[in-house]
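User: Could you go from structure to sequence for me? I need the amino acid at each position, not a summary. Structure tokens:
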């Protein structure tokens, strides 16, 4: 699991799987190249999401590391197996508010659970929210063997099983497609996902996702909680030292080598950069076919380890929301 097993994390935020963000994807629409697709996935149980939380896709379009466009998904308490959601669009200063503000694009829409995707449209925005097949492919047992996690073979010499542990995993997907021109990339955008929960009268940031498998740098629950609570504009000042240390421990990087690798990928701030004028392939955006586990292992081990043998899932589709139906 891209943002979990590389980092040896087994505990979702606050012990609640519903709050656990999975992955973030940014790519041009296969059915309309003039559009850009933003997809945030959560909850590997593929069930409901938390009714006291906000799940947000943030877009910085001018390089100042502040959110300029925010899509906030808010979910109601499930009733008789049905959960509904509202979607808000906020721009400019409103986009930085922790609560869901701005224009309400949709209200009281049922989260889709069946094989047929219920596609919503509001002006130039196309939206989907529901249970879909997880497009991530990963030899989880192989990664655990490589890293010697207790209870596994712990065989770093021959760790790979060749089995895609996510072949039948479902996630809750929140997808938005919009005209690329409307995003206002100057010349690129930076995208990140965030999960925030109401804590009394306040809002508590409990998870975030930008680059895939970043949790490989975060070694314990306390560090992860502190990381989730910060904003990307704080990342370099707050976290680059930890990243350098982790890269030295795992890959034998010198300080200068680690900094150069972080600069080359754009690892910090932890926002997924996408320049529409270039092909979408991680680290320029992220497509379903990108082998991000192989990329992160190669990055962490300074080229000493790759994750061979797995292929992208074949159940993705050519029309919105592009993720395959649930298993």
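Assistant: Here is the amino acid at each position, in order:
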């Amino acid at each position: 699991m891209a943002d979990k097993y590389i980092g040896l994390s087994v505990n979702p935020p606050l012990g609640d799987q519903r709050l656990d963000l999975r992955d973030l994807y940014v790519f041009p629409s296969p059915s309309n190249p003039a559009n850009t697709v933003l997809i945030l996935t959560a909850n590997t149980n593929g069930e409901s999401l938390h009714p006291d939380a906000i799940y947000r896709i943030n877009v910085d379009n001018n390089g100042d590391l502040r959110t300029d466009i925010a899509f906030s998904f808010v979910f109601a308490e499930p009733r008789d197996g049905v959960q509904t959601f509202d979607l808000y669009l906020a721009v400019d200063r409103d986009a930085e508010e922790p609560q869901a503000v701005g224009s309400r694009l949709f209200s009281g829409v049922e989260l889709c659970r069946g094989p047929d995707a219920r596609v919503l449209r509001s002006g130039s925005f196309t939206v989907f929210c529901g249970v879909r097949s997880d497009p991530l492919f990963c030899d989880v047992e192989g990664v655990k063997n490589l890293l010697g996690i207790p209870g596994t073979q712990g065989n770093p010499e021959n760790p790979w099983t060749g089995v895609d542990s996510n072949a039948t995993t479902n996630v809750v997907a929140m997808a938005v497609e919009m005209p690329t021109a409307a995003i206002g990339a100057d010349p690129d955008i930076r995208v990140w996902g965030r999960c925030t929960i109401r804590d009394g009268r306040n809002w508590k940031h409990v998870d975030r996702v930008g680059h895939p498998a970043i949790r490989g740098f975060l070694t314990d629950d306390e560090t992860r909680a502190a990381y989730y609570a910060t904003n990307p504009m704080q990342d370099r000042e707050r976290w680059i030292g930890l990243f350098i240390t982790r890269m030295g421990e795992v890959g034998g990087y010198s300080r200068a080598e680690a900094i150069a690798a972080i600069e080359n990928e754009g690892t910090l701030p932890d926002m997924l950069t996408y320049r529409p004028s270039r092909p979408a392939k991680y680290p320029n955006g992220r497509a379903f076919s990108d082998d991000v586990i192989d990329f992160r292992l190669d990055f962490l081990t300074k080229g000493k380890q790759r994750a061979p043998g797995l292929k992208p899932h074949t159940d993705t589709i050519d029309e919105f929301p592009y993720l395959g139906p649930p298993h």
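One structural detail worth keeping in mind: The CA atoms of residues 26 and 38 lie 5 Å apart.
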